[in-house]
Amino acid sequence: MDFTFKDEQQQFADALRRWVDKDYSFEARKKIIHSESGVSDRAWATLVELGMLALPVPEEQGGFNGSAVDMMVVMQELGRGLVVEPYFATVLGAQFLKLAGGQEGLLERVAAGELKLACALGEQQSRHALNDVLATDSSGAGRISGRKTVVLHGGQAGAFIVSVRSTGAQRDTDGISLYVVPCDAAGVQVADYRTIDGQRAATVEFRDAPGKLLGEQGKGWPLLEATTDYGAALLCAEAVGAMDAIFAATLEYLKTRQQFGAPIGKFQALQHRMADMFIHLEQARSMAMLAAVKLDSGDDEERRRVVSAAKARVGQAARFVGQQAVQLHGGMGVTDELPAAHYFKRLTMIEITLGDADHHLERFIAQPGFKEAA
């Protein structure tokens, strides 16, 4: 498989990396994390200026109509820089708007950087099953009630994409509807908090809050599934960028840390562990690229199969590479002073976001043709 990016994609990546190296250092990031808002308006403005928000938006709404591979380039660099701004949450919400159609005004605001989005999809009982929905829309009246948990960057959003139950039983895929709910609408309460990886999330309570329907009433599952597959593929790309960075940091540490009068990188046992990390990283890179390519194939069955395979493999690799990096750093590997600990925490969160490795292995096995192929 050809992993060579186009010239314009590489230029995009280089521009992002220069910004991270110059203005988004590890120390600058720590200050942002510990600030009251947990994000930086200045960093967000830079992302807008670089065209990151316009990239996935259709040209008709002021965007560049970027492909999933274009987005992979961006997410890798954001993962490498451990960027904590609400970019992922916003572009995931924008994908809902794109696929649903009829949301041109909101997409124009996203492309201009004026609107941040958050996706309120999970609930306390649902874990990774996004079809497990108890929040309701008052039997189709568009009044949203229910509690959504771990809403990524919910406290920084201007609007929520919310999944609700219009009809059917709790775990039915039929009967799910999707709504856009302004964050300042009556009946919306947001409890913002910081997650272990320095990002922000929120518990959002909806109490008869007004919402605008996305797509068809009770027919939201295909849209929900397609969009979260898109999000899972983006997370795979971010994980690859984070693994690139933690691998490089670990290699540098092995070259400089002295033990018994020699750099510990000279010890063959540690060289073997670094080789194993590299293999996991490259396999993850292959699967992340494959997922990005297949997102645009138009084949729903293939998209489900490949995205779940990628999320499972990347999740396994993220766990292995992160744990090995921490161990090879010794006790320093878990301290707040070293980037390695922060990469490890972010990789851990990526692995459990939008379905962990076990969840996606089960989903992969459940796809048509698996048993016949086996």
Give a verbal description of the structure.
This protein is α+β, with helices and mostly antiparallel strands. It has 3 domains: 7-111, Butyryl-Coa Dehydrogenase, subunit A, domain 1, CATH 1.10.540; 117-219, Beta Barrel (Butyryl-CoA Dehydrogenase, subunit A, domain 2); 222-369, Butyryl-CoA Dehydrogenase, subunit A, domain 3, CATH 1.20.140.10. The protein is built from 12 helices and 9 strands. The protein has a 4-stranded mixed beta sheet with strand order 1-3-4-7, with helices on one face. The chain has a 3-stranded antiparallel beta sheet with strand order 2-6-5, with no helix packed on it. Strands 8-9 form a two-stranded antiparallel ribbon. A hairpin with a 2-residue loop joins β8 (258-259) and β9. α5 (87-100) runs antiparallel to α7 and α7 (221-256) runs antiparallel to α10 (339-352). The radius of gyration is 21 Å and the shape is globular.
Summarize, please.
With 374 residues, the chain is of the alpha+beta class.
